[in-house]
Structures are given as structure tokens and as C-alpha cells.
Design goal:
Elements: H1 3-37, H2 41-44, H3 59-64, H4 69-100, H5 107-119, H6 124-133, H7 151-162, H8 166-174, H9 179-190, H10 192-208, H11 211-216, H12 226-239, E1 251-254, E2 257-260, H13 263-286
Antiparallel strand pairs: 1-2
Helix pairs in contact: 1-13, 4-7, 4-10, 4-12, 10-13, 12-13
Length: about 300
């Protein structure tokens, strides 16, 4: 075998080894968290849990789902994530398309205003009073309305729209299509790759958010979100476990032995419960990340 035959073999070998190491390093924290969440809390304190639980138990998850409020909070989180993502994507894309049109005379000044909001904020207290004056306190829409438009996402989408062939829009106008029809029939479908990426970012942000629930709807339990409920559970567990060998008010006998819930074990279970739903969404959006920009359209 000549040198030309050896080089591909060496490259493939090192490439395979490198990718295995990369995948292992990437997946290990998540797999370790799953193992800790399925391990008995009092045994987890000893350490040494890597990829496989030493003492299997589901008590950590039972502790998470022990409160009946967790189920309603889950559906509130799902509703706010879906509605916020759909509205943010549609309205931000519509704004981005408007500001991308060169014939729109106010596009530069409006863009500057939106960019300024990325660098300057009124602060927490003025923001709270604004929400109060808009009568959004203790309502579901406080989760949705403030996040309907994103300045950063608008700039990203506008830049993406700027790369689309102008001949597509010109030919549509010649055929008599208006701006809204052009947006719905041409621009919006061609923006799927960038919209999928932004949708994932918006969905993750909405799903992981808990501070707005604490700030605006804490007095209404029925509007509590999953992340806020899990945060309260984790806080109560850590506060009540000054002695790590004492369960956080939750104890169940398994095989005539007291299985303990500790901050480490409950934190792992909370992490898995909070992350799995959003991980299930990713495969449906991944294919759009590599989709061609102008497949089937006019090339400049």
C-alpha cells in the first residue's frame, strides 16, 4: 500500500477517534445527570456516580411530581412557549421584511431605535410599573406580549432577507402581488432556515424563564410556570437540608430502608424534567439548519 493509500486510513482513524472523544465529552454531563437523578439521594452524597446509578430509585422524580401544581405549571409553560414562539417569529419577520425594503423611508431611523433598546434598558422597577399600567399583572399575557418582538432577531432576519434575490420580489410585483402576499408566499417560506434557528432560541428562552413568573404572577398559583415551580422545589430542598442526610420533608420506605432526597439528587431530577421537553423539539428543527437558501428559486 502506497503513501496515497495510507493517508486516508490515518485520517479516518484519527477523525473517528476525535469524534468519539468529542461525543463522549459532550454527552457525559447529561448522562451523569440522568444517573444521579436515578440514584438514591443518601447514596449520591458519597460521590462516585458516573454513567450508571449505584442504587436505583425513582423517588427523586416522585418528589418532583409530588405536588399537584406541577402538572398545571407544565401546561402553562407549554402554552407560553408555543404562543410566544409563534408570535415572535411571525411579527419579528414581518418587521424585518418591512425594514429591509429600501423604498421605506423610515427604515434607518426605526432600525436605530430598535438597536438602542439592545444597549439601554429602563430597568427593573420602571419595567414593572409599565407592566402594571398595561394591566398585565397576574395575567397569562404578561408571558407573551413583552416578548413579541426581538430587536436582535429582527436584525438577524433582516440581514437574511437582504441576501434573497431581489428578482423574486420584483417578479411578484409585476404579477400584481402586494407586499403582504409577497411576504406570506415568498419571503416567509424562504426564511425557514433562519426562522428555525431563531424559533429554537425563543422557545428555549420562554421555556427556561422563571423570573417573570416570580415577578408578575407569583400571587396567582394557577399561572405559575414549570420552571418557577421547580425553582421553588429546589430552593426548599436546599434550605431544609442543612443536614444532607435529612430528607427535604419527603421520605419513602423502599425495601424497608429510608430513601432520602438530597439537594444533589433533586437538582439532577429537576434538570432532567426541565430539559427533556425542549430537547424533544430540536430534532424537528435541526433539518432546517442546513437547508439551502434558494432551492428551486431564481438565481442571481
Amino acid at each position: 500500500m502506497g503513501s496515497n493509500g495510507i493517508e486516508p486510513v490515518l485520517f479516518n482513524t484519527f477523525n473517528t477517534i476525535f469524534m468519539i472523544i468529542l461525543v463522549t465529552v459532550t454527552l457525559y454531563p447529561f448522562l451523569n445527570t440522568i444517573a444521579v437523578s436515578l440514584n438514591a439521594g443518601n447514596d449520591t452524597i458519597r460521590g462516585g456516580i458516573y454513567l450508571w446509578p449505584r442504587q436505583w430509585t425513582t423517588q427523586n422524580y416522585k418528589a418532583v411530581f409530588a405536588s399537584g401544581t406541577i402538572y398545571n405549571a407544565f401546561w402553562i409553560s407549554v402554552a407560553r412557549t408555543v404562543i410566544s414562539t409563534l408570535l415572535n417569529i411571525f411579527l419579528t419577520t414581518m418587521l424585518a421584511y418591512t425594514l429591509s425594503r429600501k423604498e421605506y423611508v423610515f427604515r434607518k431611523s426605526i432600525t436605530v431605535i430598535f438597536v438602542l433598546t439592545m444597549y439601554f434598558s429602563a430597568g427593573l422597577i420602571p419595567g414593572y410599573f409599565l407592566i402594571k399600567q398595561l394591566h398585565l399583572l397576574n395575567t397569562f399575557w404578561v408571558y407573551v406580549i413583552p416578548s413579541m418582538i426581538s430587536a436582535f432577531n429582527m436584525i438577524v432576519i433582516r440581514t437574511y432577507i437582504g441576501t434573497l434575490p431581489e428578482s423574486l420580489i420584483e417578479s411578484a410585483k409585476i404579477d400584481g402581488a402586494g407586499d403582504f402576499k409577497i411576504f406570506m408566499r415568498i419571503i416567509f417560506p424562504l426564511c425557514k432556515p433562519v426562522l428555525a434557528t431563531i424559533a429554537l432560541f425563543v422557545a428555549v428562552g420562554a421555556w427556561n424563564s422563571w423570573f417573570d413568573a416570580f415577578l408578575y404572577t407569583s400571587s396567582r398559583q394557577e399561572l405559575s410556570t414549570l420552571q418557577y415551580e421547580l425553582m421553588k422545589l429546589l430552593s426548599s430542598t436546599m434550605n431544609s437540608n442543612s443536614n444532607p442526610n435529612v430528607a427535604a420533608g419527603i421520605g419513602m420506605k423502599e425495601n424497608s430502608a429510608l430513601s432520602m432526597v438530597t439537594p444533589i439528587s433533586i437538582r439532577a431530577a429537576v434538570t432532567i424534567v426541565a430539559s427533556v421537553p425542549i430537547l424533544c423539539v430540536y430534532p424537528f428543527l435541526q433539518k432546517y439548519f442546513v437547508v439551502g437558501l434558494n432551492v428551486g428559486s431564481v438565481k442571481e
